[in-house]
Design a protein that fits this description.
The longest helix has 46 residues. Helix 1 crosses helix 2. The relative contact order is 0.06. Helix content is 93%, strand content 0%. The protein is mostly helical. The chain is elongated, with a radius of gyration of 21 Å.
Length: 74
């Protein structure tokens, strides 16, 4: 009986660690996407002469940022 209780606690602990790992991975991926990849993509688009693509991406990113800030502070 004690073994079953310990197995339950071990599985519960590993499940929480697995959930934490998925959340941490998602947050790290979002950080790199918005802080590293998006500005890099915009700079490459401008240097490559694709300013007509860079402006809408920048506008959409700005709108998303404003909506996110307005909804979190409300």
């Amino acid at each position: 009986m004690l073994t079953l209780i310990m197995m339950f606690f071990v599985f519960a602990f590993c499940g929480r660690l697995l959930g934490f790992a998925f959340r941490a991975t998602w947050n790290i991926a979002m950080f790199f996407l918005f802080v590293v990849f998006l500005p890099l993509m915009l700079v490459i688009a401008i240097v490559g002469g694709l300013i007509s693509i860079a402006w809408p991406i920048l506008a959409i990113a700005g709108i998303v940022l404003l909506v996110k800030r307005c909804t979190t502070n409300a």
